[in-house]
Amino acid sequence: MIGNGKGKIGKATNLRGQVSLPTLGAGEDAYDVHFEWDSDFGIPGAFYIKNYMQVEFYLKSLILEDIPNHGTIHFICNSWIYNSKVYETDRIFFANNVSCFI
């Protein structure tokens, strides 16, 4: 966190492509996303999401892998993400790991 109570925000990114996972259920999809952030940011503790598609989608989770000196961070979302025109602000989800905020 920086002095004003807000974390540092990295560059925006887009979905890179659909991936196949053996744990996906019927009607579920998984996508690859590449995030860039400066090591000065520390361990990611939250992310913003904006849906530019015409239809809503259900976001079950986001998993960040290969975080230097940390490993994997899980974000449990379980939320519908509606078109960005429905929201005045971006949606934000927080990690389920308190060590991200220490």
Could you explain how this protein is built, in words?
The chain is built from no helices and 6 strands. With 102 residues, the chain is an all-beta fold. The chain has a domain at 47-102: Lipoxygenase-1, CATH 2.60.60. Strand 4 (57-67) and strand 5 (71-81) form a beta hairpin. The chain is globular, with a radius of gyration of 14 Å. The termini are close together. The mean pLDDT is 79.
**What do the pLDDT scores average to?**
79
Shape: globular
User: What is the CATH class of one domain?
Assistant: Mainly Beta
Helix count, per DSSP?
Answer: 0
Terminal CA distance: 9 Å
- The CATH topology of one domain corresponds to Lipoxygenase-1
Question: How does the major sheet shape up?
Answer: 2 strands, antiparallel
Gyration radius from CA atoms, angstroms: 14 Å
Decide which structural class fits the backbone: mainly beta
Give the helix proportion (percent range). Answer: under 10%
Would you list the SSEs in sequence order as H and E? EEEEEE
Uncertain segments of ≥5 residues (pLDDT<50)? none
Q: Please state how the strands of the largest beta sheet are arranged side by side.
A: 1-2
Overall CATH architecture of one domain: Sandwich
The fraction of residues in strands falls at 35-45%
Number of strands: 6
| Quaternary state of the chains | single chain
